[in-house]
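Form 12-C: Joint structure prediction
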Amino acid sequence: MGKGSGYGKVILFGEHFVVHGVAGIVSAIDSSTDAIVSKGESGLVVKDDRKTAKGYSEEKRLQQIESIERMLKAMDLDPKLPLDIWIGGSLPGFSGLGASAASSVAIARAINEEFGLNLSNEKINQVAYEAEIAYAGNPSGIDNTAATYGGLMWFKKDSTGGPDLVERLKIQMPIEIVICSTGKVANTKAMVEGVAERKKANPAKYEPLFSQAGDLTVAGRSALEAGKLEKVGELMNENHRILQEIGVSSVELDYLVDVARKQGAIGAKLTGGGGGGCMVALTPGKDLQEKVANAFRAEGLEVLATKIGVIAR
Ligand code: MEV
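Section 2 - Result
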């Protein structure tokens, strides 16, 4: 029996743009997916005990099977190897929180232990990237990197296929955030493809937006490192506006962003692939965090009140 786990994450700046070589900023959160893997008798048996948004497991089922086969191949194992896999842990299966990457890292680590492969974290990250192809089509690698290493990081995909630029970011102290789920499952692959198609069809509109997104990530890094949280919030709001313009927000996400801001969040945006999934609000201090979280809870919505800039391997 092998065990493993992977962190969930929120993207503060740059989702979608990061697929096309723009830098992004991501933070792991203190919720993770755990996996237990044992050699099986016949075929692949996956028991998924995660708390999920309605329909999440069913929607992701085929992508999950493909992701596991891809990982086995990347580990030089037979993709049809019979395995019994259990998945659970504190990270809910909500779109936008890197749940697929966290589960892939957890499963890769558990397979590594069960088969005594002795893989480095770097290799686990590469294997999880292979799995992300099943979920996101053309992933940037930001989710699996956060799921593997944790912490707060700057991430820039190398568009020539070379190693991505990953830098740890230091902030003065962890910052409270509120994550709220729309309850809607989103198909990351379809969202990523949609952006690529629209960008290709309308470069005059999309190129300037991509360049603005890059500027926002740079400004977001400076503001985070200098502890200028009001500025970070302002830039997150601006990032949400650009995400609306590239067509990845939704009525539900815009509503959550609006509620968070009205309750005093200093910034709020969709996080992850959009089209459903989750919103993240910057709510420094316990009191503000509770106020914003409670407003969502009062509407019966699923909330995670956590911090950015905490954990790292
Ligand atoms: C998903 O969490 C983030 C996306 O940018 C896809 C990716 O970077 O792989 C939408």
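Section 3 - Comments
Strands lie at 2-13, 24-39, 44-48, 83-89, 152-156, 165-168, 175-181, 267-271, 278-282, 303-308. The chain has a mean pLDDT of 96.
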